[in-house]
Design a protein that fits this description.
The protein is of the alpha/beta class and about 300 residues long. It has 3 domains: about 60 residues, Arc Repressor Mutant, subunit A; about 100 residues, Periplasmic binding protein-like II (D-Maltodextrin-Binding Protein, domain 2); about 100 residues, Periplasmic binding protein-like II (D-Maltodextrin-Binding Protein, domain 2), CATH 3.40.190.10. About 40% of the residues lie in helices and about 20% in strands. It is built from 11 helices and 12 strands. The strands form 4 sheets. It has a 5-stranded mixed β-sheet with strand order 4-3-5-12-6. Strands 10-7-11 form a 3-stranded antiparallel β-sheet. Helix 8 links the parallel strand 8 and strand 9. The longest helix has 27 residues.
Length: about 300
């Protein structure tokens, strides 16, 4: 017979799992430590399984607890989305939208979308996560992100996600103004340079990694930057070379410090997609923000 689980037990469990200790979860949730402990004990009793290993410095999930955490956090996110969906359909425009964006999107389209969205729905809270798809898959699967605008590797399709093509963008080799290799006309001429790139696990950058391999090239990628800000700052103030979106190169926030090379062998374009979970409908507010991204992407 299925266990009789209660929402306050699931919330207590998820809070403690995320914080790694009952004390930290107590501060976050505003509940007392005894109340959290009791809720977790009741949950473990109902499930007939131990969910945490108690340690001197906090708690860690057991194998069963880790598996249950994925389900419990998704249940709570789905419930939140369902409640906000009803409120928004009743005209109570509150709630929260959680999105992910690639670095080039964060510096080009995202500010326009967020500005318009906030002007129309000032009461809706927005959370923005920047990075490549590889760093967001977990949150997408768990429902913590509504969608992301990003590139993806078509050789590694995720069956839990759907991909809607939005636009293509040009990527180019970039370096600082006055770089000694600013005259280069081919990738081969730049092999000896020090390169910095985002993680090759990222979708477009995996494509570049494979491209270099096909051409028998092995650029010295001695620094891996997990954010575009770190990458562009390093390139602008050193002799490191990278490959980024032309939109980012032209961003006025860089003060004209970066130049793009027009090589004889152009790089492949990057295709951006709106990516979300297959089995989850967006709330009206999330759906409207997704529509804004579609609109602004089409204008570029």
């Amino acid at each position: 017979m299925p266990a009789n689980l209660k929402l306050h037990q699931l919330r207590a469990f998820v809070d403690v799992a995320r914080q790694g200790s009952i004390r930290a979860a107590s501060r976050l949730s505003g509940l007392s430590q005894p109340a959290l402990t009791k809720a977790i004990q009741e949950l473990e009793l109902a499930l007939g399984a131990r969910l945490f290993e108690r340690r001197q410095q906090g708690v860690t999930l057991t194998d069963i607890g880790d598996n249950f955490f994925r389900h419990a956090s998704l249940v709570l996110e789905e419930l939140r989305v369902a409640q906000e969906d009803i409120q928004q359909r009743l005209g109570l425009a509150g709630g929260r939208v959680n999105i992910g964006v690639g670095g080039s999107i964060a510096r080009t389209i995202m500010p326009q979308v967020i500005t318009q969205f906030h002007r129309e729905y000032p009461l809706v809270k927005v959370r923005i996560v920047e990075g490549q798809l590889v760093s967001m898959v977990h949150e997408l699967r768990q429902g913590a992100l509504d969608f992301t605008i990003n590139t993806y590797d078509q050789h590694h399709l995720d069956q839990e996600l759907i991909f809607e093509r939005l636009m293509e963008r040009d990527y180019q080799v970039v370096m600082r103004k006055g770089h000694p290799m600013a005259h280069a006309r081919s990738l081969n001429e730049l092999q000896h340079c020090d390169w910095t790139m985002p993680t090759p696990q990222g979708s477009y950058y995996r494509l570049l990694h494979d491209l270099f391999g096909e051409r028998g090239m092995a650029p010295k990628i001695v620094v891996t930057c997990e954010t575009f800000m770190a990458c562009t700052s390093l390139v602008a103030k050193s002799d490191f070379v990278s490959i980024i979106s032309r939109d980012v190169i032209e961003d006025p926030t860089h003060g004209g410090q970066l130049i793009a090379l027009d090589l004889d062998d152009p790089l492949p374009k990057a295709t951006f997609y709106l990516i979300q979970r297959k089995d989850t409908a967006l709330t009206p507010m999330s759906a409207y923000m997704a529509q804004l991204f579609r609109r602004y992407c089409q204008q570029r």
